[in-house]
Amino acid sequence: WTQALTLAAVLARAERPPQDPRPSVPRRWPSDAPFDRLSRRSAAATLSAHSDVNINICAPRAVQGQAKPGGGSRVTTESAPPEGHVDVANMTWVEGWAKDPDCPSAAILVQVTVDGTLWWRGKAGATRADVGPHAFGWLVDQVFGSSATNHTIQVVAYGVGPDGKPDGANAVLTGAGSQVEGSCAGVPSDCGPPHGTPAQEQCALGAWCSDVPCYWENRGAETLYVENDHVRVGVNTAFGGTVFGLHSVSTSTDSGLQTTNYSQNLILEHGGAAVQLSIWGYDPIGPAAWFRRPTKEVPCDNTRFPSSAACSVNNHSCVERCCSEGTQVLDCTTELPCGKWTAGAPFNPIQAQGKDCGWDIHAGCTVVEWVGDANETLHTLQPSAFHFTSNASAAPLVMEQWASVGPGYANLTYRMTAPGYSGVTWGNTTQEVPAIFTSGGTSSKWFWYNGTAPFTNGTVTEFSSAPNGFLQFPDRPVWPHPTQAVGTVAEGWWGVCSEDESQCVTVAGNSELFAEAALSAPAGGHPSAYLTPIGYFSGLHPGLDLQWTLYLFPFKYDAQITPTQTVRDIIASLLRPEQNSV
Hints:
By secondary structure, this protein is mainly beta. The protein has helices spanning 199-211, 213-222, 308-311, 567-575, and strands spanning 27-30, 62-67, 73-77, 83-89, 93-99, 109-114, 117-123, 126-128, 132-139, 151-157, 171-172, 179-180, 223-227, 231-236, 243-254, 257-262, 275-278, 289-292, 318-321, 369-374, 377-382, 398-406, 409-417, 429-436, 445-448, 461-463, 469-472, 485-488, 493-497, 504-508, 516-520, 530-537, 545-553, 560-562, 565-566. Strands 20-21-22-23-33-30-29-25-26 form a nine-stranded antiparallel sheet, with helices on one face.
């Protein structure tokens, strides 16, 4: 994922982030907790037949009643249970339909329980050609307590009477098997559930699961969340503290029940993507040279070729690399490239990577030390970061991350140090601080402020397709990609939304470490957005100590977060020069 995204930004002084005001009270839950965190209901939860909340109003369904004395008959109403079917039930997608004959126009409530715990509740109100406006679907991008074993999935439809109010006549829907396999074998491999659900997200989950089953099977126990009434952020403690989850949060009262609603995960769940530090570096010795890409016959070739023509003899595929005599060049005996990287590829320690091109502690690689949380902040520490490009020894970089939440945003503070290091100084190059990949489909509309009067609610620039370029932070000494600039980060934020704007991510930060913001949509079947702040500095040198803060909003820039503040207003309060120096 990061191979095609060697990007850049500008060296700056280390700094500490501003004090987080955090007026909302955050809450941290283990990832195996029920998602209905306010009501905390179990599978036994039922709707009150005395609720005053109407779902819909329907004409009474007339049936013949008992004959009246003196002849004739009386009209009564009879409560019938809901009808419906579970069409798909697996570890990534639950889908079906439900309606109540007592009120056929109503979008009735359905809930999904896994192993007796409520995980999702919503309305069967989506339109499908075969069932009309009575379909429902849940993208299972959340995590269960244990994904290595089979799980029991149950879908309950809540009945309503002719008046549209809950009548207590509920039904357990049948159809797709209630016992689903929790291992990777339970993840569909057809790259897309039926009826137009998010195929690209399914593909990403399936690919990551098949490549790294331990992530899927243990993410329930190893992902911790911190949240408030607006935002939820999930950190995986076995993958270097990588942020694999970002959700908007809302609450609603429906049929007498208060429910907490989480958006689809807005972060691409993949070890080479997600939200994580990705540091690049060369030992700056020797001229540039061309290296051959690995083949089945020759998986590693460290021959330095002086030109593309010399390298590509006999149709070899080649790539130019900096610093051909540096220590990053592999010996191709004990040091081997990961994936399709070449022998001359740069160092690239990232948060999620394990040793020997593997991943996480379940591959025998302890890649993170869980420090814990204080004041509702998730603190992780990656004591030695392995390379995404090769199995070379881990870089002596310590990567720390603090994740917390504020009004409408996730606050991510990073620190990079090299305690006791006295070795080679890596040359200045572009850095992903951090790399940010959104979930599939969140890549259609792009936004930033490009004007000359920041924080005055000026007109926002909008692109209807990926800019595939860089925004420049003002007054930086170096812009690594001046010929690819598409604008200026005049207010310190940039964002992207899906076509219908139902899924949005806005990134904000103004650290002097940032020189550019990269805005692109990587090719290859996963239409995610790449929204990365770019730095330009040496990723490893004696005395290294850098600290900075970034804010992630699971909303569009103009979303109303509080009665008086939009996302853009909150960003102004965080980044406006007279308020803070971030």
